[in-house]
Every structure is written in structure tokens, then in C-alpha cells.
Design goal:
The complex is a heterodimer. By secondary structure, chain A is mainly alpha-helical. Helix content of chain A is 56%, strand content 1%. Chain A has helices at residues 2-6, 13-32, 35-40, 44-59, 61-64, 81-90, 112-125, 134-137, 143-160, 162-165, 188-197, 212-227, 241-265; strands spanning 172-173, 179-180. In chain A, strand 1 and strand 2 form a beta hairpin. In chain A, helix 4 crosses helix 7 and helix 11 (188-197) crosses helix 12 (212-227). Chain B is α+β, with helices and mostly antiparallel strands. Helix content of chain B is 34%, strand content 14%. Chain B has 8 helices and 13 strands. The radius of gyration of chain B is 38 Å and the shape is flat. The chains are: A mainly alpha, B alpha+beta. Chains A and B meet through helix 9 of A and helix 2, strand 2, helix 4, strand 4 and strand 7 of B.
């Protein structure tokens, strides 16, 4: 110690200290820097992230903040994952057309490539659910397996989804102007992503509580209810007793009343005939 | 057509002229006008054939109903404009039964209008009371009877009679008891009441039938749970799950406004009864951003971040919350029953 302290005023002491500090910093960086990030720098992934960041700055940053950290107008996107981006932008919900109780579905203005770039950028902000692959969400094309999936999916749908989305997936009302949208004509991928990420006020159903296979079964059931012909003909919206009762009262009873009036008003007297 | 009509009828038209002496004189009934079928036998025969034809069509339709029931495959789907794709069996059954019933009705109406007698028959209205002689006689008889029975004199008989008459309707009121039964203590205990500190019950995911760990439940997710040991194949599963069903949500502990509710949960995981406290509908319209749960029946809304307080609608009580914790292996468990009865409110409810 004495030697060190004796030479601390040596002209080269500052240089030695600087060299030591630089070596320590470099060593620490090499030890702790995430390996993937270091590898990704020149890959297509990092290019996608760069492109996505530019798209984000133009289309999303006014509400979600320049770095996706969230503002008073939009939530933070750290940790929402690429699946959420693919769902929100892919269904046209984002960018939102106006603030309100619920952001409605509308025409999507981004190409799938742009959505993937945006998703890559948002996914780089923090780990989250990853955009699923077709093997994950596409129900089986085998008739027997598909029928089995539809049956199981129906049970899961009635337990987890029917309370908001109606027994037939036609959607329903929630509080204060919010609503559960109809599942008619929604892509299998988007249904799967919605379950994964819980968009807007929908609760999420992560793989830990609803495994991948069950999500696929639910997709199979929703597709089946959309495609299947109605055994009764007119479905009247498949909304249940409200439309059916209204139809019965207005058209059924109304027709009977009109017939009764017609019968009573038309005499068969010879004079008139 | 009118060439078949007798001349007298044309002449009779307009005979009920108002007399100038009495402008309010009763004009009487208009003269009867015969129908074509009354005066033209050919028309009557034709009407008869029409009515019979409709009845025969009805018979054929009924036979068609039975035939289609027997012959059409229940799974067959056909395209029918403008209904679209419909089940062939449903369509055939509905159509034939509809035609069968309609033809009976239409035939009956046609028969009544063309062939049955349509002579106008005045039915004059008279006062409905009896004449004075009859009334006096009845009053006299009543008085005699009352005097002979000693009804006014023997007060004990009179009073007990009145008493018994007054009590008889009570038996009807008692029969209303059948509208019950009252829940008694059935809602006080659920399937969770077998759980104790020493032998807790695991919470089992309704989807996977597996016990859950806290890390499985992410914020913003919704999971339904039942007590371990309650199998769907059990005979009384529906009765049990109607009381035991849980909805499990995870809310950032800082967002939970009710301290008691936060303590009953585990690291922000809250387990609430899924049964509405109004009339017992299953409620799980959970909005993960507002933490409101909505009942689809009568729109009772509960704030799950505030001890499931009722913030809208007819429900009278917050949703009961199950106290949960974890065991040594890290599975979510309950060590006791709900503090209060689950399900709809009733008079005997303790709180």
C-alpha cells in the first residue's frame, strides 16, 4: 500500500488508472452483455427492428410515446409482445381513429411486412407473447380430428368465452359503451392472438391457464359456428330470445290480426260480390 | 252476377227511410241480403267443393308430415330461396304441419262465410234482476231461515263460524309454501368448506383440470377454477359447481383499493365467487382494464379491484371472496370456505 500511495502523484498515474478502468468496463460488458443482441446487430431481425422503429415513430409514437413507453393518451407497449401488435394493427384497430370507450375494428392500412416490422420493434422493447405460427392456430384439416376439436372447443368456448361473445360468437354489450365484438369472419390467427394477449378489455388466456391445443380447439369451434348452416333457416342474428320474440310478436301475431281484419271486413253478400 | 239476384232485393234496398215525424226513430235491422251461395245452387256446390278440397289438402299435408318425418335424414341440408341453407327435415315438418293447420282454419272460415246460415238474429238485452215477487219471496225465506237457525241469538256459533271461515283461506296461503323450498343453510356452505389449515383444497383450473401456481396467473387474465376433487363426471357436479365456481383474476396489488380484499388474495391474485348475488346468474364478463365484472342478466356490476363492491345494478351484496394462499409446492390453495353465503340474496342471509 505504501508503494501505491507513494506513487500516486506520478505523472503516469492517471494513465494507469484510466487503463485499468477501461479494462474493467470492457470486461464487465463482455461478461454481461446479452449474447443475442450482440449477434443480432447485422441480422435481418435488427433491420426489421430499425424499419419498425421508423414506422412506429410515424404511426404510433404520438400516443404511445417515442420509445413506446406510453403517454397519457396510450398505454406503454413494453412487454406486450409481437402478438399484440399483429392483432391490433392486423385488425385495423390500431392506429385508433379516435379515443373512445372502445377502438373498433376497421380497414387495415399496413401491409403484413410492415406489421411484422412494427411487431419486431415492439417485441424488442420487452419480452411478450410472440406472433403465433399457422401450426399453432390452424385447426386440423382432418375431418375426424377437426370434429373432435370442434366438440372440445365448444365446451371451452361456453366456459371461457360465451359469457361475453354470446353462445354463437355474435358478440354482446359490456359496460359504458364497451362491447365484445362479433367473431364472425375473424381470422384464426387474430382469434388466437386475442386469447393470448387480451386486447382492450378482454381478459387474456395465457398458455399457462389455457394451453395452445385448447386455443386451437376454440378456433375450430368458432370457425365451425361461422361456417355451419343454420338448421332452422333464418337465424334472426342468432341473438336468442330477443329477436325471436320480436319477430313472433310483430310478424306472427301481426299477420294473424291482419287476416282476422280481412276476414271480418269482407262480407260475402251477393250485393257486393 | 247480379242477374241471378231476385228483383225484390234491389227494390228493398233503401226502404228504411227516416220518417220526418221522428228523426230519431229506430231504423230497425237492414233487410237481409242473401249471399250468392244462398240463391245459386251451383255456387253453393262450388263452395262446398272448395271447403272439402281444403280439408283434403290438410289431410294430405298431415300424411306428408308423417312421411317426411319417417323418410328425411335429420342431417340433410338443402338450399331454399329465400331462407338459405336449412335442414330439409325441419323445413318439411314445419311446412306440412303449417299447411295442415292453415287449411283446416281456412276451410272452416270459408264454410262459415259461404254455406252456414247468415240470417241476422237480434238478441235483445233485458235487465238481469228478478221481478219483485221473486225477490220478496227470497228475502222472506232468508229471514225465516235465519230466525230458525238462531244465528243472531247464538253468538258463540256465529263467532266460531266467522272464525272458521276467516281461517280457511290460510290453507291456500300455506300452499304457497310450495313455491319454495327456502335455501335454508344450503348456500352457507360450499364445496370449499372441507378445506382447513391442516388439509387445504387446491384450486383446479376448469380448462386443464390441473392445480395452478401463482406464476400461471398473469395480470389481466381470467381463469375459472373449481375445488380439487370435484369431477365433472360426479353425479351432483352441476349442483356443486353452481356454488363452488371461482373466477380468478390478478390485479396489481397497488391497484386493489380494499385492504381486506388484498389480504384475502395472494400477491394480487383474487378468487371471487362466479355467482351473482342478485338471482344467481354466472357472471364473468370481466373487463381487465376497469376490473369490472358485469352480470349479463340484470347488469349488476362489481368492482373486483374494490372487494367486488356493487357499483351498478340490483345486486345487494358484493361477490363473496375466497381466501387463498399457496402450499409448500407453490400451488394455490384455500384453507376454508367463503365468509358469507354465495349466490342470490335471501331473507335469512346472515349478512
Amino acid at each position: 500500500m505504501k508503494k501505491l500511495s507513494a506513487r500516486r502523484r506520478h505523472p503516469l498515474a492517471a494513465v494507469v488508472v484510466l487503463l485499468l478502468a477501461l479494462a474493467a468496463t470492457g470486461g464487465l460488458y463482455a461478461a454481461f452483455a446479452p449474447a443475442e443482441k450482440a449477434q443480432a446487430d447485422s441480422s435481418a431481425q435488427s433491420l426489421a427492428i430499425d424499419e419498425g422503429k421508423k414506422l412506429f415513430a410515424v404511426g404510433c409514437s404520438s400516443c404511445h410515446g417515442l420509445n413506446g413507453q406510453g403517454t397519457s393518451d396510450g398505454p406503454s407497449l413494453v412487454g406486450v409482445g409481437s402478438a399484440a401488435v399483429d392483432f391490433q394493427v392486423g385488425t385495423g384497430r390500431m392506429p385508433a381513429q379516435q379515443p373512445g370507450a372502445q377502438v373498433p375494428r376497421k380497414k387495415n392500412i399496413y401491409s403484413q411486412a410492415e406489421i411484422d416490422q412494427l411487431a419486431a420493434y415492439v417485441a424488442s422493447l420487452g419480452p411478450g407473447p410472440v406472433t403465433p405460427t399457422p401450426e399453432q392456430y390452424e385447426p386440423s384439416s382432418n375431418d375426424v380430428t377437426n370434429a373432435e376439436q370442434v366438440a372440445k372447443g365448444g365446451e371451452l368456448f361456453r366456459t371461457n368465452c360465451a359469457q361475453c361473445h354470446n353462445f354463437n360468437g355474435k358478440g354482446g354489450a359490456l359496460t359504458n359503451g364497451k362491447y365484445a365484438p362479433s367473431l364472425e369472419g375473424v381470422d384464426a390467427k387474430h382469434i388466437y392472438e386475442a386469447m393470448q394477449t387480451g386486447p382492450q378489455n378482454m381478459p387474456s388466456f395465457p398458455d399457462t391457464t389455457m394451453p395452445e391445443e385448447q386455443k386451437r380447439e376454440i378456433v375450430a369451434f368458432v370457425r365451425h359456428t361461422n361456417d355451419e348452416a343454420s338448421p332452422g333457416g333464418l337465424t334472426l342474428g342468432s341473438l336468442g330470445p330477443v329477436t325471436e320474440g320480436l319477430f313472433g310478436w310483430i310478424f306472427g301475431l301481426g299477420t294473424l290480426i291482419l287476416i282476422a281484419i280481412w276476414v271480418a271486413a269482407h262480407t260475402t253478400k251477393a250485393k257486393k260480390s | 252476377m247480379s242477374e241471378n239476384l231476385p228483383e225484390a232485393h234491389d227494390a228493398s234496398h233503401g226502404t228504411a227511410l227516416v220518417s220526418h215525424d221522428d228523426p230519431f226513430a229506430d231504423p230497425g235491422l237492414p233487410a237481409h241480403e242473401p249471399r250468392r251461395t244462398d240463391i245459386d245452387e251451383r255456387a253453393a256446390k262450388r263452395a262446398e267443393r272448395q271447403v272439402s278440397l281444403m280439408f283434403v289438402v290438410s289431410m294430405l299435408a298431415t300424411i306428408g308430415f308423417i312421411a317426411s318425418y319417417a323418410s328425411i335424414d335429420a342431417d340433410k341440408i338443402v338450399y331454399i330461396f329465400p331462407l338459405g341453407h336449412v335442414s330439409a327435415l325441419n323445413f318439411a315438418l314445419g311446412m306440412t304441419l303449417g299447411v295442415a293447420l292453415f287449411c283446416i282454419g281456412a276451410g272452416a272460415v270459408h264454410w262459415a262465410r259461404t254455406l252456414m246460415s247468415d240470417h241476422e238474429l237480434p238478441a235483445e238485452r233485458h235487465p238481469i234482476e228478478a221481478d219483485d215477487d221473486v225477490r220478496n219471496d227470497v228475502i222472506e225465506q232468508f229471514k225465516t231461515g235465519a230466525a230458525e237457525s238462531g244465528f243472531g241469538r247464538r253468538k258463540m256459533i256465529r263467532n266460531t263460524l266467522i272464525g272458521s271461515m276467516a281461517l280457511v283461506p290460510l290453507s291456500g296461503v300455506v300452499l304457497l309454501r310450495d313455491l319454495g323450498p327456502l335455501p335454508e343453510k344450503k348456500l352457507l356452505h360450499t364445496g370449499w368448506d372441507k378445506a382447513t389449515q391442516s388439509s387445504p383444497i387446491k384450486l383446479v383450473n376448469m380448462n386443464t383440470d390441473e392445480p395452478m401456481k401463482p406464476e400461471d396467473i398473469v395480470q389481466g387474465s381470467l381463469t375459472f377454477a373449481k375445488p380439487e376433487g370435484l369431477e365433472e363426471s360426479a353425479e351432483d357436479f352441476q349442483q356443486q359447481i353452481a356454488k363452488d365456481a371461482l373466477m380468478i383474476v390478478r390485479i396489481a396489488p397497488g391497484d386493489i383499493k380494499d385492504a381486506e380484499s388484498r389480504d384475502k388474495g395472494f400477491e394480487g391474485i383474487l378468487a371471487y365467487s362466479k355467482i351473482c348475488t342478485h338471482v344467481g346468474c354466472p357472471i364473468s364478463l370481466y373487463e381487465q382494464q376497469t376490473h369490472h365484472a358485469l352480470c349479463p342478466c340484470h347488469q349488476s356490476t362489481f368492482d373486483l379491484a374494490d372487494g367486488a363492491r356493487v357499483i351498478f345494478g340490483p345486486a345487494g351484496h358484493p361477490l363473496p371472496q375466497l381466501k387463498i394462499t399457496t402450499d409448500e409446492q407453490g400451488f394455490l390453495i384455500a384453507t376454508g370456505d367463503f365468509d358469507e353465503p354465495v349466490g342470490p340474496s335471501y331473507w335469512e342471509r346472515p349478512r
